[in-house]
Amino acid sequence: MNSRSRGLGFYVLVIAMFVCLSFVWKGMWSEKQAFMTYAEFLNELENENNISGIHIIQNAEVPTGVVEVTLKSGVTKSLNVSDVKEIETLLADEYPDYTMDDVKRDNWFMTYMLPGLLVLAAVVVVIFYMNNQVGAAGGAKMMNFGRSPAKLSSDDNQIRFADVAGLDEEKQDLEEIVDFLKAPGKYTEVGARIPKGVILVGPPGTGKTLLAKAIAGEAEVPFFSISGSDFVEMFVGVGASRVRDLFAEAKKNAPCIIFIDEIDAVARRRGTGMGGGHDEREQTLNQMLVEMDGFGVNEGIIVIAATNRVDILDPAILRPGRFDRKIAVGAPDVKGREEILKVHSKNKPLAEDVDIEQIARTTAGFTGADLENLMNEAAINSAKAERKFILMDDIKEAFVKVGIGTEKKSKIVSEKEKKITAYHESGHAILFHVLPDVGPVYSVSIIPTGMGAAGYTMPLPEKDEMFNTKGKMLQDIVVSLGGRVAEALIFDDITTGASQDLKQATKIAKKMIMKYGMSDAIGVISYDNDDDEVFIGRDLAHSTRGYSEEIAGTIDKEIRRIVDECYKKAEKLIKEHEDVLHQCASLLLEKEKINREEFEALFA
Ligand code: ADP
Ligand code: ZN
Fold first, then answer.
1. pTM for this model (two decimals)
2. Ligand 1, from 170, 174, 210, 339: best to mutate by most atoms within 8 Å of Cβ?
């Protein structure tokens, strides 16, 4: 809050206080009037010549009134009477000179409006204060408690299907929704039921928001977007009222699209909450279901939701008439990546050595957002070098940064640490190279990364694979143990640097046994309980681990066996290539970072 508005509020408060005081003051004056009893009044009437005047103030609507008797001595006393008529008949005999008039009404503005306005002003000022205070502290707006924070994208939502690269089948599926929004009549005439809700399922950054925006853009309808987490606030009932508000707003703007990002934040399976179940989230979800059931099939509102976890969604939201259309949006394949790269290099001048196809091939697993980030980092690199176009080298540099995190050249590392890291990474690299299903090595480095690793060995994913095989998973374990093996072999002491590797190895072994049935001792049974923390409430409630103590013991033994065998294999392979290990480590110490060609030359 700036000082000017604080000053204003202050003045309003001061004025309000003055006016209130003046009311109290006036009240005190009127109290000063002297009263008399009926007996006194009759008494005064008897000594008529004591009286200089009698005045009746009557209240026209009711029989009551006030009789003011002014005595010769100048004193005025008043008497409250319950029936003015009675006094009038009495005075007609005793004192016919009395005067009478109606109650002087106070100006209604002064009596009723002004105090009300003042109170209102004070309340507004206080809320204004608190609102700003809260706004500064927590980002919440008190006045907006129940209002939906949905954002209506402005008319310049120019995103079209053409801006969404790859995802051809997904676009085809959504085409009919665009068509419906454009010409609903065509569908209603033949009695077709268009889905009310579409749920886009896929990992973050794969273009779900982009797709939803493109539908709105193609159909030229308003686009309301809100995140599931916006509904879940600390105040009970806020979420539900936000949902109501959002749908009311959408109805006013139909046809339109409501986009709910991260719907899992509200639509998690019910009854899994720790606190008895009737929590805020459930109310919000119920309200959402009520709203979706409430609007007619062809009212022209289409709700598009995004999540990367359909498995944890409440089945109720997937019922017909709700989100009954499910579209998977996966990480792009080579062709998709190429197209996405083309979209994001559209207004970036590229040098002639930039090979988009090759970048697409070497970025398996990258999402659209990663690729966008990659091209952006490359552009930043070229700008830093005062170049007007992007070189392949800029992209390669960006590749490491996006994939690993920025290298921290400035971090000081002792010689001993460097040497250990060099052998550690060489150990990983050799195994990547000699094992058939992993690698090849893209680069090896002992430059510390932003993410706390002392170095890294980066393999090159060459294929997009749907399945993992048992063989490949075992090799993954062998590779991750390579660092530790090399350390143990060269320095007959070991460091703490391999903790992440060991964790990784154990995790893979556990998955093989418990999720994929790849261990004979356990058999082809899945003991995997979604490895999922969101169900912790449910799991606690029912305390089901799903397997016996005996099985748990066998699982532990199997993990140990697999990891031990892999360790032995890693040891054997690295010993076989000990010459390469030494060469690679000393090359790393010299250059800090070596690329694929330099590394592979060591095996020649
Ligand atoms: P999600 O909603 O799935 O998390 P977004 O739609 O927000 O992902 O994508 C983030 C960014 O990634 C987009 O703004 C866009 O720049 C880029 N992107 C993702 N997928 C694509 C795609 N298929 N084509 C073009 N750009 C994409
Ligand atoms: Zn390691």
1. 0.57
2. 210
